[in-house]
Write a structure and sequence with these properties.
The complex is a heterodimer of chains A (140) and B (161). Chain A has 140 residues and is an alpha/beta fold. Helices cover 43% and strands 21% of the residues of chain A. Chain A has five helices and six strands; from the N terminus they run H-H-E-E-H-E-E-H-E-H-E. Chain B is built from five helices and five strands. Classes of the chains: A alpha/beta (140), B alpha/beta (161). Strand 1 of chain A pairs antiparallel with strand 5 of chain B.
Amino acid sequence: MAKKKDRVKSEGVALDMTPMIDVVFQLIIFFVVTLKQEDILSHLDAMAPSPDSKAAPAEKIEMLTIDIYNAKAQGGEGFLVNKTPVSYRQLDSEIKRAARNNKSSTVLLRCTKDSPHSLLVKALDLCNKYGMTNLAIFSL
Amino acid sequence: MAKKKRKTEGGVDLDMTPMIDVVFQLIIFFVVTLKTADTINPDIELEYGKNGPQLKADEYKIPPVTIEVKRYKRPTDFLKKAGRPTGRIISINGSVMSLDQLRAMLRQIASRRGTNFPLLIRADKDAPHEDVRAVMNVCNEIGIWQVSFLAMIKPGDSSKK
């Protein structure tokens, strides 16, 4: 009697770790395989939200015109400010200066058909950096 | 002696529990991973735009529509699967469509939800402006005015390809 009781008790207490280790390994593999870090994205507004644009006041218009073209075909970095070619860094300071004057002045972005989208995004990104919100994108 | 016999019997018995555990885990794994595959065009590489406002999951009250634009120069797996030639490829959630189909689809969404929904353009960095403009023109036509371009603040693992 004493023997039987002893055996049962000791068997019940001993935990079999094998299935738990199996499951833990599976979970580790699951997370290693599925953990694909997503890109952190930003959104750059292309069209200004103006459902009541007819009521927009026609004040004196200050405008910064940026031309964007295909740099691969024509050389340079793909940006023109007032028809002079500028580098990305010069464009940064041009927009900075315009923003210091008046943040609500219009930035006119004129893109040629074959200009890569990346340059437009770069220019929009700079406008966002300095808080220029009045954007107009034109296509040539 | 009788005790010993019991022990050997236990060794022969196959315990099915871990195997069933593992099989269930595998089933869950495949159910979870299969659902998320192929929801975007995997070939699109976004330009960096670290100064833009970060896109968050709960940013919009109305769920946005994302349009993918890319100009293909050589065929890829995605293109072969869609059965399309190289050139301008417009897609929504990885399903390729023509400009007319896009127009019809956006019209349909607009008639159901109004034109007051955000639209995100996920254009490849090398996509020529005319392709993006074509999509923007369709939006203009229908009267969708909340149009934004997507850019990348920080690349995840998926962009290393």
